[in-house]
Amino acid sequence: MSDKHPPKHAAGEHSGKAHEATPAAEETAAVVSVDTAGGAMEPSAVPATAQSGQLPGGPDTLLRKIFTGSGMVSVLAVLLALVIGGLLIASTDKQVATTSTYLFARPSDFLSAVWNAATRSYIALFQGSVFNPRGNSVAAQFAPFMETLTIATPLITAGLGVALAFRAGLFNIGAQGQIIVAGILAAWVGFALHLPLGLHLLLVLVAGIIGGAFWGGLVGLLKARTGAHEVILTIMFNYIALYFLRYLLNTPAFQRPGETNPISPILDPTAVYPQIFGTQYRLHLGFLLAIAATVLVWWLLNRSTVGFEFRAVGANPKAAQTAGINVSRSTVLVMAIAGGLAGMSGVAQVAGTEKVLTDGVAATYGFDAITVALLGRSTPWGTFAAGLLFGAFRAGAVQMQIQTGTPIDIVLVVQSLIVLFIAAPPLVRAVFGLNPRRKKPARAAKSRQAATTGGAA
Amino acid sequence: MAGLATVSASALLLTACGAPPEAGSTSSAGATDYTGCIVSDSGGFDDQSFNQSSYEGLKKAETDLGIKVNQVESKTNNDFEPNLRAMVTAGCDLTVTVGFLLRDATKAQAEANPDSHFAIVDSGYETPIANVKPIIYDTAQAAFLAGYLAAGTTKTGTVATFGGMNIPTVTIFMDGYADGVKYYNEQKGKDVKLLGWNKDAQDGTFTGDFEKQDVGKQVTQNFLDQGADIVMPVAGPVGKGAGAALKDAKAAGKDVKLIWVDSDGYLTAPDYKDIMLSSVMKQMGDAVENVVKEDKEGNFDNTPYVGTLANDGVQLAPFHDLESQVPAELKSELEQIKKDIVDGKLKVESKASPKA
Fold first, then answer.
1. Chain segment B317-330, per-residue pLDDT in tens
2. Which of the residues A95, A96, A102, A106 would you substitute to probe the B interface, choosing the one with the greatest number of B C-beta atoms within 10 Å?
């Protein structure tokens, strides 16, 4: 299907890397992707594999461009989101509201109020996530950074799962469900079995990874065998996992003895991750494992045969098939590994921070992981960095809320804005005046195009 | 479009023309340095349920007692520990935590900071902790009255209830409601049917969360189709879905009624005033304010506060607009039942009742 438009392909790929594409070319690429999606209706000898090439994960589609856009766009998107977030904070600030009533009589009051509201919040965000100069000891000063790393841990591993699947052309939104299933198994091993130190934790980790890998692999298997779309499958599997967890938490096997609340017993001390820098921080061994997982995924993608096959399938499943790659096997395998990575997040939750199983075990990490992978452009270290950034947002939001009364939701708004801007690279480039087409001599058709785009932006 | 922009721009200009205040005028209100703090669960302070009521109680203490208030919302279960820790570091004298999910985190912080005081809403500990005061409610008592009221008011002989999730703080309402209906049947030799909850099996109809109002509407619609005319949703904001379904039914000419929970729905969900029969209230705000007051006066203790009909911690709300639809005889019977429960002549028991 996609080989009908080879030149446009090239243009599209190019546009992602060096900002050379005109909006016209980008539009054409989008049209092409619609074309190919329409083409998916054609009967094919290998439906399962053919589909993966033409649905959103396929080459040259908008989604692919979003996931692999330039690093510059990621950075600028974060900046822009922070600026807009600052304006939002200011707009809800009482001082700003009061001063705006006499804006013309004394505009300086208004402007300084806006500036104060935004900077106060962001300073609190920084103090809550990186370094707090008001802490009364060095340990207390660095406590926020430790908290950032703690929250980043499940984000990184789940983000890696999403990123890896995406590189193989699969849009995995099932991290949430995979974390839950992993959490169920890991927690059960943690509180129901009583084993010696070391072995117990190892078994908790293995149980969690297997749980996640099973839940992810099942999606891969269904897709490979039946051609069902992974987006639908993973969404449904998220619900199945959540309601299964809620059911389990209402059974005596998962409830605390003598309790009717849906909360599991506390995990054995032998089953939880040791805290790396002592008990004053929540930071646990899971963070080191997240670093190890990042290295592993990097190696897998860039140095191993399996990783090459994943990328080949992601780039063009038909060509990969022709080249002798077993696409079905790759689909199952990549989803299983992605699930296993998300499973590590589940373990980080039950054995790292929460130490119990509740129906909030996955928090929103499974969905945040998609944003993290998106911001990290689906590269292992990019995902790692994005995970740290989001960890910092989450950790800092607490301080921001306490010190300045800024609602914690503002952080969610900033996160959502980041996604929005990453999804619209031309918009971000236009805001920062980076669209190269302006420097080119204007032709009639192009200037018209620019005018419309400008109006839209 | 342009006209709209002009209008809003000129509105902005008009409001921006006020006079600036005199420089150097700062307001000082706080006469005490006592700080009361609150940490929500993931519902947030606008959950129209226990987070909101507890928060309002603390805010009331702020105005009435002149204390400082510090609040922080938890978005996920992961936030509990850092939030609580931050509150203790921020110098809170008393920290109120809301919900059983915060129990472990509260216990850990309380034990690590024996000089700080805590109060936990809707949860308790088997072994009391010296510096944590549980605030719990025997809601079944008030729900019993609601069940009796519903059974005595129904025209179709069928009443219904549903919950958000099958957890004790929800099912305690449903247990009391079921018992109230049963008691009415026993007293009057009637056979009013209850849909949505089976006390013996401890199972019934649940919407699955406290968010999806459309599910609440659907469930209520099902109850109406099965002949129910009074519904008590125990699902926080999902109750609005029930209200919507009942309003539709009323518009179609059916005589239907709604029983609200937690707060007086006539005041907190005024959209459904015309079908609001009554509400099963948990006076969490008052309890929180009282605990703050006691602690401020140096009278903190860790004996659980148990809200009952006797201490007005739980109540049946007034009938407001539907006053005329409740027969005087039924009203006096309800008064009598309330008295019997307070005196201990009538025992209302639920698996979820606080054991104190």
1. 999 999 999 999 99
2. A102
Q: Tell whether A106 is within 8 A of chain B (Cβ).
A: yes
Query: Alpha-carbon Rg of chain B, whole angstroms?
Result: 23
Q: A353: closest CA among A266, A431, A231, A245?
A: A266
Q: Which residues of A touch B20 (CB under 8 A)?
A: 99, 102, 105-106, 109
Q: Does B125 touch chain A (CB under 8 A)?
A: no
Per-residue CA distances from B118 to B32, B69, B353 (Å) = 19, 14, 22
Q: Does A243 touch chain B (CB under 8 A)?
A: yes
Predicted structure pTM score: 0.79
Beta strands in chain B (DSSP E): 35-39, 68-72, 94-98, 117-121, 132-137, 158-163, 193-195, 197-198, 203-204, 230-234, 257-262, 276-282, 305-307, 314-316
**Backbone dihedral angles phi then psi of residue B234, each to the nearest 5 degrees:** -115, 65
B298: left (phi over 0), alpha (psi -120 to 50) or beta: left
Residues B44 and B52: their CA atoms lie apart, in Å, by: 8
Q: Is B282 helix (H, G, I), strand (E, B) or coil?
A: strand
pLDDT the model gives residue A67:
64
Q: Is A408 within 8 Å of B20 when comparing Cβ atoms?
A: no
Here the tokens at position A223 are 């897709």
Tokens of B260: 């609200």
Give CA–CA dist B339/B326, Å, rounded. 19
For residue A248, the chain B residue with the least C-alpha distance is B166
- ipTM score assigned to the predicted complex: 0.77
Query: In this structure, are residues B70 and B84 in contact, taking their beta carbons and an 8 Å threshold?
Result: no
- Closest Cα partner for B205 from B185, B219, B188? B219
* B88 touching chain A per CB within 8 A: no
Interchain CB distance below 8 Å, B76 and A401:
no
CB-based contact, B301 to chain A, within 8 Å: no
